[in-house]
Write a structure and sequence with these properties.
Elements (H helix, E strand, L loop, with lengths): L2 E4 L10 E11 L2 E12 L6 E4 L4 E6 L3 H17 L2 E3 L4 E3 L11 E12 L2 H8 L1 H21 L3 E5 L3 E6 L2 H16 L5 E13 L2 E3 L1 H12 L5 E4 H6 L6 E9 L6 E8 L7
Parallel strand pairs: 4-7, 11-13
Antiparallel strand pairs: 1-2, 1-6, 2-3, 3-4, 3-5, 8-10, 8-11, 9-10, 11-12, 13-15, 14-15
């Protein structure tokens, strides 16, 4: 079964990150698809890839072998256009421990969401090969700041990343440091921060707080770090200053939210 791992988040020399995998198999006139989120551990030839959750599957009956062959060829071409590359080896399923069937654990964290501004235009200008190199350096820079400020990467999203922090001040400092670090690569990012509860169930991390963080990031301008009012309130004793960016509707999120811009030496003011 040909397997593909999304590049841009794929780094052969880095361990401990999440990505997406997609597999296709043809048997006569029938196509079997399998896809989902994966964890990558190890590097180089010793790298191992695991499904983070049971993969989704789909069966497509094409009636004729020729149609199935054409479907598979077109599907693989589409994945390559979306920055997937062939993945050697098997994708394993993690064995669950005896305690995994317990109730999901609930925790509180500050959520950081990073997204590259105008990434599609940059891919078109640089080309796939050069863009893959830039993205490799991008994730190295982001993960270096996460490690320095004790952030935990949750998932990568193609051009972005979601992480959690125990302390909001650490999350804000990490966000401003990332803005500066990736600017040397010719990249501008937008960052959103929100604090709230989330649940951990097996390998999955879920909660409305993650969606709010993503929506906050979507409101940020290039080079800007935006935080929700929750984060600002938690940092009332901090020396970090905030500028009011008004009240906003966040897509799919109840009520209106007041957002604030981080006014910090590491963030370019607009």
């Amino acid at each position: 079964m040909p397997k593909f791992l999304r590049i841009g988040v794929h780094q052969s020399n880095v361990s401990g990150y999440t990505s997406k995998a997609w597999c296709i198999r043809r048997a006569g006139a029938t196509i079997f698809l399998k896809w989902g989120a994966v964890e990558v551990h190890g590097a180089g030839d010793g790298r191992k890839v695991y499904w983070t959750l049971p993969a989704r599957e789909k069966t497509i009956r094409c009636r004729t072998v020729k149609r199935a062959q054409d479907y598979a060829k077109a599907a693989i071409a589409r994945r390559r256009n979306h920055r997937y590359e062939p993945l050697a080896g098997n994708i394993a399923t993690r064995r669950r421990s005896a305690g995994r069937g317990a109730e999901p654990k609930q925790a509180l964290a500050t959520i950081l969401v990073v997204d590259i501004v105008q990434s599609t235009e940059k891919v078109a200008r640089l080309g796939d090969t050069r863009w893959t190199q830039v993205m490799s350096h991008y994730y190295v820079a982001v993960r270096k700041e996460l490690k320095t400020l004790r952030g935990k990467e949750v998932v990568t999203t193609g051009d972005g990343l979601l992480a959690i922090f125990k302390a909001p001040a650490a999350a804000v400092r990490c966000a401003t440091a990332i803005c500066e670090a990736v600017r040397t690569l010719g990249l501008e990012i937008r960052v959103g921060l929100h604090a709230g509860e989330y649940k951990v169930s097996g390998g999955e991390v879920v909660g409305l707080a993650f969606h709010i963080g993503t929506r906050v990031a979507a409101k940020a301008r290039a080079g800007e770090v935006l935080v929700s009012s929750v984060v600002k309130d938690l940092m009332s004793q901090s020396q970090i200053r905030f500028g009011d960016r008004g009240v906003h509707r966040l897509k799919g999120v109840p009520e209106r939210w007041r957002l604030y811009r981080v006014e910090h030496e590491g963030v370019r003011k607009k």
